[in-house]
Write a structure and sequence with these properties.
This protein has 2 domains: about 60 residues, Multidrug-efflux Transporter Regulator, Chain: A, Domain 2; about 80 residues, no CATH class. Helix 1 packs across helix 2 and helix 4 runs antiparallel to helix 5. With about 150 residues, it is mainly α.
């Protein structure tokens, strides 16, 4: 069964212009065209397109995604290159995840800080608060942020 670009875009939950852009960038060499030049997507194209989407969401640049797709089409001789690229991107995602966890911790600390201040009616409540009164998970931040920013 064949799908139009609009139908495939709907199945992937992306805009048709996204698929056109990917095609223009050489990321969809597997997509067939009708005699009139219309892109015709097949069910088996879905796996490639989903992989492309995941790599993009992982923050991989299109140039590297293109290399990955090219290597995939070349077969087993490029398994090592693909693995290296996936490992590199995986590490990048783990680094981003750690940064987001640090950011979330800071936001949680500030939420606690302002909730406590609101209950007391003043931010000055923190000036006399002993470090032991600060929830344990925020103590390092509280010590670091001795004054309100």
């Amino acid at each position: 069964m064949f799908y139009t670009i609009g139908e495939m875009a709907q199945r992937l939950n992306v805009a048709p212009s996204t698929l056109r852009y990917y095609d223009k960038e050489g990321l969809l060499p597997f997509v067939e065209r009708s005699s009139g030049g219309i892109r015709m997507f097949k069910d088996e194209d879905m796996e490639w397109l989903q992989m492309l989407g995941y790599l993009k969401k992982a923050g991989m640049p299109l140039r590297e995604i293109k290399s990955f797709m090219d290597w995939s089409r070349q077969g087993d001789a490029t398994i090592g290159q693909r693995l290296d690229l996936i490992e590199k991107q995986r590490q990048s995602v783990l680094d981003q995840q750690r940064q987001l966890e640090d950011t979330l911790l800071m936001l949680d600390y500030k939420r606690w800080y302002y909730q406590t201040a609101q209950e007391a009616g003043t931010c000055a409540v923190h000036d006399t608060m002993a470090l032991e009164q600060v929830p344990e998970r925020f103590r390092a931040l509280a010590a670091e942020w001795k004054t309100e920013v």
